[in-house]
Amino acid sequence: MNTEVKRLSRRNFLHMVGRAGGAAAVYETMAAMGLMAVPAAYAGPPRLASGSGRGKRIVILGAGIGGMVAAYEMAKAGYECLILEARDRSGGRIRTVRGGDTIYEYAKGSERILSQHAAFDAGEHMYLNVGAARIPNHHEAVLEYCRRFGVRLEPLINDNRAAYFHDSGAFGGKPVPSRQVVHDSRGYISELLAKAVNIGALDESIDELDRERLLGFIRTYGDLDASMKYSGSHRSGLQLPSGFGPGDAVVPLDFAELLKSEFWFYKMHFAEGFEYQATMMQPVGGMDHISAAFAKRVGSMIAYHQEVTGLFNTDDGVRVTYRDRATHEENWTLGDFCICTLPFSVLKDVPNNFGDARKQAIAEMPYSNTVKIGLQAERRFWEIDEGIYGGITWTDQDVTQIWYPSTGYQQRKGILLAAYIWGGAPAAAVGDMSFDARIAHARAAVEAIHPNHGTRLTHGVSRAWDRVPYSKGGYAIWSTDYRNRNRGNLFGPEGRVYFVGEHVSHLRAWMEGAVVSAHNAANMISERVKATGAHLEGRTSA
Predict the structure, then answer these.
(1) Longest dimension (CA), the chain
(2) Which of 466, 469, 480 is nearest to 508 (CA)?
(3) Among candidate residues 384, 420, 459, the one with its CA nearest the CA of residue 162
(4) N or C: which end of the chain has fewer CB within 10 A?
(5) Cβ neighbourhood burial of 305 (10 Å; 0-12, 13-18, 19+)
(6) Could you tell me what percent of the chain has a pLDDT over 70?
(7) Where are the alpha helices (DSSP H) in 225-355?
(8) pLDDT digits 0-9 by tens, 462-520
(9) pTM, full prediction
(10) Do the Cβ atoms of 195 and 222 come closer than 8 Å?
């Protein structure tokens, strides 16, 4: 085969994986294909010697999770840290919306600011995480800080067999329970495999000693009958009789309809990806309890409303210019080093004296135009009527996913994530809508899955991350080609400027990526200080 065709085919495949599962799914796929080295196991937070940073000043741009982690760890070693944050809050893309909150976006095609007011009812469970929402069980750095800071966690149900798959081109456009899609597919594939074994089609792959056990394995795995046929399974659900009784298995889905659908393309096995396997976690009461725990410890170092207007390496340090958004006063400050956590979608518009290669890498980094829409339910119909407690329904409508809350079980009301769209044309189309149109669109999408319920959903709020000031995107979605061309401009410093964030880690789109990159920057600066004794004496801001 022509090598160019091979290369393009692989690229297209990875692109499709990225559309399906986001940046983390691409990373896992690339690692499995041998296209990317898997990073070493988490080694814990930086172990900086006490007092090793005394007399040295770090200017940190951004009070997101990466910036606050860097400040927390470096301040313990004696570094003087100043965090410049353009917003009036910490957390960056960790954003939990509750009743009474106001959130902001740019208007379409301009930088005119539009506002949305959240009218959710009060209650610990009445919130919407419009940004970060999940913590995998192996994201040790984030989990360790939660443990250390006393942030209470609870399981997040990422995959639920009671939720639905919905494809308008299959099964008459009706939603199908996840348990049927998963287990009927497994049964049909097992039946085909059993036939192949019985006719000797796999003789070159198995020997006689394996055959009997293999057929037993296949029969058990697919829940086949004695004739090795798949005729349905209790795993797929029961036609429950009145009163008590075992019930009969539901009628299996038509195999041709399963193939017609796109369930098998990625949705059916999405939750099997390494980053998405159970158990996943979330903070009790909202993801921003994590950023609040850090702000409690580094809040005195944060200067809010300070918009960075310039970032420059000097002969022996850095010079940062910034504007106070409240007073419009122009200021500048000096530091030994800068830790820049600004997304490249924002940094590309900040004047700097970086080298051309770095500037190009910053300008070319693509970001996902992620959209989330949340709606208040006056009645938790998904639990009461359908037995769905947490989890995700997939649909080919452009809302893509509907998340049922993994908290507040059996309360009267709840907040339904009625749309999670992580990029591409669907996100662009929904993001272009007015706030009211987005809410109406999400209600209609829920109605298609849960008739007579979607239109009854009340207060709503939405977020299109590519229109959020000081974010301008949900998360980085750089390709293998981009990474290979810009490796040195992703993970290394530019003079005395060190870059931190999910966008400069192998765990893009995850808080863990930002945290580990902050640890890396702290270690690199510490080693540099140790080797050179670099510091500034008596420098002050203008």
Answers:
(1) 85
(2) 480
(3) 384
(4) N
(5) middle
(6) 89
(7) 255-260, 288-298, 344-347
(8) 999 999 999 999 999 999 899 999 988 888 999 999 999 999 999 999 999 999 999 99
(9) 0.90
(10) no
Q: How many angstroms separate the CA atoms of 164 and 162, rounded?
A: 7
Q: DSSP class of residue 173?
A: G
Distance linking the first and last C-alpha atoms of the chain: 64
d(CA 304, CA 481): 37
User: What's the CA gap between 422 and 408, in Å, rounded?
Assistant: 26
Phi, psi at 117, each rounded to 5°: -110, 130
Residue 205 per-residue DSSP state? T
Q: Which pLDDT value is given to residue 23?
A: 41
d(CA 535, CA 525): 11
Token digits for 439? 């809410």
- Cα angle 521, 527, 529; round to 5: 100
Q: Which helix (H) or strand (E) holds 425?
A: helix 424-431
List % helix, strand, coil for the chain (3-state, nearest 5).
40, 20, 40
Alpha-carbon dihedral sign for residues 46, 51, 56, 62: positive
| Cα–Cα distance list, 483 to 35, 495, 521 (Å) | 11, 20, 19
Rg (CA), the chain: 26
Specify whether the CB–CB gap between 426 and 442 falls below 8 A: no
Of 4-18, 114-128, 519-533, where does the model show the most confidence? Answer: 114-128
| Side-chain-facing half-sphere of 261: CA atoms under 13 Å | 28
Q: Whole-number mean pLDDT of the chain?
A: 91
What is the rounded CA–CA span in Å between residue 392 and residue 404? 6
The span from the CA of 228 to the CA of 233, in Å, is: 13
Instruction: For residue 538, count other CB atoms closer than 10 A to its CB.
Output: 5
Q: Tokens 């947490």 appear where?
A: 390
- Give φ, ψ of 166 to 5 degrees: -135, 125
CB count within 10 Å of CB 398 equals 17
In Å, how far are 65, 235, 436, 497 from 493, measured between CA atoms? 19, 53, 44, 6
Residue 258, pLDDT score: 96
Residue 536 above 60 pLDDT? no
Per the DSSP assignment, residues forming a β-bridge with 92 are: none
In this predicted structure, which of 162-176, 194-208, 281-295, 303-317 has the lowest mean pLDDT? 194-208
Query: Taking 90 as the threshold, does the pLDDT of residue 10 lie above it?
Result: no
Residue type, 126: M
Phi, psi of 320 (to 5 degrees): -120, 130
Question: Which domains occur in the chain, in start order?
Answer: 57-90+300-365+478-532 (3.50.50.60), 96-129+153-163+277-283+368-467 (3.90.660.10), 178-261 (1.20.1440.240)
